[in-house]
UniProtKB/TrEMBL annotation, chain A:
Pfam families: AIRS, AIRS_C. The gene is hypE. NCBIfam families: hypE. This is Hydrogenase expression/formation protein HypE. PANTHER family: CARBAMOYL DEHYDRATASE HYPE, HYDROGENASE ISOENZYMES FORMATION PROTEIN HYPE. SUPFAM superfamilies: PurM C-terminal domain-like, PurM N-terminal domain-like. It comes from Desulfolithobacter dissulfuricans.
TrEMBL record, chain B:
It holds the Pfam family HypD. It comes from Desulfolithobacter dissulfuricans. GO terms for biological process: protein maturation. PANTHER family: HYDROGENASE MATURATION FACTOR HYPD, HYDROGENASE PROTEIN ASSEMBLY PROTEIN HYPD. This is Hydrogenase expression/formation protein. InterPro entries: Hyd_form_HypD (IPR002780), HypD_1 (IPR042243), HypD_2_sf (IPR042244). Belongs to the HypD family. It comes from the Bacteria. Keywords: Iron, Metal-binding. NCBIfam families: hypD.
Amino acid sequence: MNTQIVLDHGSGGLASQELIGSLFLRYLTNPHLHQLEDAAVLDGQAGRLAFSTDSYVVDPIFFPGGNIGELAVNGTINDLAMRGAKPLCLSLGLIIEEGLAMDTLEEIVRSIARACDYAGVPVVTGDTKVVPRGKADKIFINTSGIGVIRDGVEVSATQAVKDDVIILSGTLADHGITILTSREGLQVDGNLQSDTRPLHFLVQNILDQAAHAVHTMRDPTRGGLGTTLSEIAKTTGLCMEIEEKAIPVQGEVRAACELMGLDPLYLANEGKCVVFAAPEKAELILETMRATPEGRESAIIGRVTDVHPGRVVLTTISGGARLVEPLTGEPLPRIC
Amino acid sequence: MKYIDEYRSQELVRSLTERLHAKISRPVRIMEVCGTHTIAIFRHGLRRMLPEQIELISGPGCPVCVTPSGVIDAFIDLAGRKDILITTFGDMIRVPGTTGSLAQARAAGADVHIVYSPMDALELARHNPHKLVVFLAVGFETTTPTIGATVLEAARRNMDNFCIFPAAKVIPPPLRALMEDPKLQVDGLLCPGHVSVILGSRAYGFLVEEFGLACAVAGFEPTDILLAITSLVNQVQSGHPTVDNCYGRAVAPEGNRKAREIVDQVFKPVDSDWRGLGPIPASGLGLREEYGAFDITRRLEIPIVNSGEPPGCRCGEILKGICQPPDCPLFGRACSPASPIGPCMVSTEGTCAAWHRYGTLD
């Protein structure tokens, strides 16, 4: 077998079949995928279906704490979970640049398989394309997913109401700062790691406890918490009042942000969610989140009010107050 | 986080602001000359905590904002040329000239890279021997020592595919120009922290002696800024202006001699055009003759045409502290961070961007 991806691997011919057989089916083993049909046929499900898709083009493709493969699995699982859905299965589409080392691809596929096994969500259908060198950056991955929403769960950005408590499931900006420092080869003390992980276990636990009390869930990926809250504020016309001192940020992440002039509020997260819940169930939901490994550092960071309609207001550590506007453009380090 | 949390303490901030409220007895106009101060003041929500008699105005302390549009056009023109690889700090990439921005040039095929240090540009030059790698040398005293050290390293390595586009500036001359402007009535100056690390607090002595201006060098944490503002209020009210170094943990009276030596070795003062302020003698830095080979403007014919401000844009007056962002007819309407027209809206440290992002809570 080749040690590098060549255009033939995407031709649909023998090389493609060999790649699928020796790599994908070797790691992604389940009866649906093994059928190698044009579409996976799934059993009917009780409840409403949720359907989501996302594409992953991260640079670098391997970073401390993860790689593009598990990011693609966890990202779509989380998108489904944020609507209160239990993820059932995923599709996996790969666009690979000619010349990618076969070992690299194998490592990515292995980590996709590991992420799927851990989450209990299989890849049931897939596709591979190879493009000439220079027409893609190493590898792009698309994952789509289907999930099922049980009765009584109504979670959406429009459902947040006044007096809701805003709970964040853990520390901010771990993924964003890890990618930025890895991309630029910056040496930062400490142990910066991406937080990529699936959140559907945490979500199902809180829905088991208090389905009706959970109004909105979002994972603050690109654009970070600041942009996510701004979107919810705009959608609902309500005010999100948050406390800087209540927002957990790891020491090394804060230090790196200070160094680069970046605000952790706007950096990406890949394993965190923000939950809007009725105040009477907030403590119960917080305890439930803290009882799961992915929500151990959950914290109440604010409340929904009608003081500044459509805006996000941050009370700073120093006791001041300021607006939090959505991110514009990419977060860029300052000149001096 | 040690050495940061202490300077953001809510109790300390409250006690400092209470003291300010108790002390102030007349209106005091303070200019913060540094873009990082502008951002820090907004980011920590300090404006709303200060007495109403204190008016804070932002000066020309963002290097991106004061770079004339003609120079930005020249950057973009250069980026579009064959076999040129442009390296720049991130702030510069979205600034619009009259013909677009470096980001747009990159989308159209130009080879434009964001770097975190000018030394990274040298590495790019090493890996791209068939390209001429140009670093856009924009910045103030804070940035120029590293740029100087990079030129020295390029000379040591005899690199012939590395150049800088000299566009760096120094802070004292525009401060003199501002204070000579009768339209700008300022009582005190919040002197820039990072710049002062290099320059030293003594560098502002002429502002006290010639203009009777109260000066306080400030760090970037809330308590640093509040201490410096308190000092300025005291100086103004007592009628005894001085240069008070309120950032003693980083700034020495004589600054950083080694850094200045590097700058002096590589650069020489040249007249320079400032957006909003116009030409100011000896306010820019050009490469000395012996390093002329690393000056792209000497190696290639690069026309710099002063194209003026976009119609309606008041960035020039904002940079002079004559008007505030909401006074500009474009602010928040045609000009926003999503579609900036003037440089003050583009740079992360620009006054308009800060006002737009943080400043309209009331």
